[in-house]
Amino acid sequence: MISEKIEQALRQQTTWHGLIREQGQEVVRFAERVVDCFHSEGRLLTIGSGPLGSIADLIALQFLHRINIERPLLPALSLCQNPSLLAALVREDRAREYFVRQLKTTATREDIVLAFRCAGPDELVDEGLQAARQEGCTTAMVSLEGESGNGNTPDFLFPLGKTPPPRGIEASLFLGHLFCELVEGELFGI
Fold first, then answer.
1. What is the CA radius of gyration of the chain?
2. In whole angstroms, what is the distance from residue 75 CA to residue 85 CA?
3. Is the terminal CB of the chain with fewer CB neighbours within 10 Å at N or C?
4. Looking at residue 162, what is its pLDDT?
C-alpha cells in the first residue's frame, strides 16, 4: 500500500515536469521580462492565496535575499504579509479586496505582479490581477488549473493542469525557483 502511494506520487510529479518542460519558452520570456523590469527600476510583487500564499512569500524572499549566490538584493515584495488588513476586510465581508487595496497603493507601471492561483474559485487572486492590469503592471500567473475565473488572461500564464494539490504546490515552488535562477543567471552571469 505505501509503496503504491510512493509510485503514484512519482508518476504525478513526472506529469508536472512535462507540463513545465512544454512551457520552457514562456518561462524564458518571463525571466527576460523580469530582468528588464529590474533594469527599469521596477519590482516583482507576488500574490497568492491559501497554501500558494506561502509560495508567493518564499519566491519573493528568494529574489530579495538569494537563491544560489551572494548578490545584491533584487526588488521583490510579497503582498501576502498583512494579516491585520486581511482581518479588517474579512470583518467587513470585503476580503476579495486584500490584494486590490495593496496594489492600488503600491504598484507602478514598471512592476510585475506574479500570482500563484489555486484551483477553483479564487476571487482574491483574480481581483488582484485585475487591479494590477488597471495599474499598468505586467501580470503573470502560475495556476493549478488554467486561466483566471474572471476571464482576464495575464500577460504570462503557466497552467499546471489537473495535477493533485500536493504536486501542484510542488510545481509552483519549482517554477518560482526556476524564475529566480534564470533571472540571477542573466543579471549576475551564473
1. 16
2. 23
3. N
4. 76
CATH match for 2-188 among 3.40.50.10490, 1.10.390.10, 3.40.50.720, 2.40.50.140: 3.40.50.10490
pLDDT tens digits for range 96-109: 999 999 999 999 99
User: Global pTM?
Assistant: 0.91
Q: Amino acid letter at 63?
A: F
pLDDT on residue 141: 95
Chain segment 143-180, per-residue pLDDT in tens = 987 655 556 789 999 998 777 788 889 889 999 999 99
Rounded-to-10 torsion of CA 51, 157, 63, 164: 30
Pairing between β-strand 156-159 and β-strand 138-143 as defined by DSSP bridges: parallel
What does the alpha-carbon distance between residue 135 and residue 28 come to, in Å, rounded to a whole number?
Answer: 24
Closest CA to 123 of 97, 102, 142: 97
